[in-house]
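for the recovery benchmark. tokens below, seq after
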């Protein structure tokens, strides 16, 4: 039995202003694109935290609270990323256990 994915078509709307120009449609992001963006942001926070830790070790940082805040931001982002991964994996496993 072949299962086809749902073909959900979003409503297409276009509008014209009173001046006659058309308003471009906003770009629609997929779930995968959101995940890639989130992973990039998490990676950037980790790199920023590492750079601030290195600057602290070199004695270049005057305010240690900024280093701690950067570290906590990176840790929270990583924990959130791991929880999303765990939930997605458990949902996938639940789908694989379903009998057709």
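predicted aa per position
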């Amino acid at each position: 039995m072949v299962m086809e994915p749902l073909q959900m078509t979003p409503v297409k709307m276009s509008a014209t202003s009173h001046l006659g120009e058309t308003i471009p449609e906003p770009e629609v992001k997929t779930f995968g694109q959101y995940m890639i963006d989130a992973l990039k942001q998490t990676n950037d926070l980790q790199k920023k935290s590492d750079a601030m830790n290195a600057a602290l070790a070199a004695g270049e940082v005057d305010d240690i609270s900024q280093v701690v805040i950067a570290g906590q931001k990176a840790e929270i982002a990583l924990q959130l990323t791991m929880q999303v991964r765990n939930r997605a994996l458990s949902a996938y496993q639940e789908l694989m256990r379903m009998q057709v």
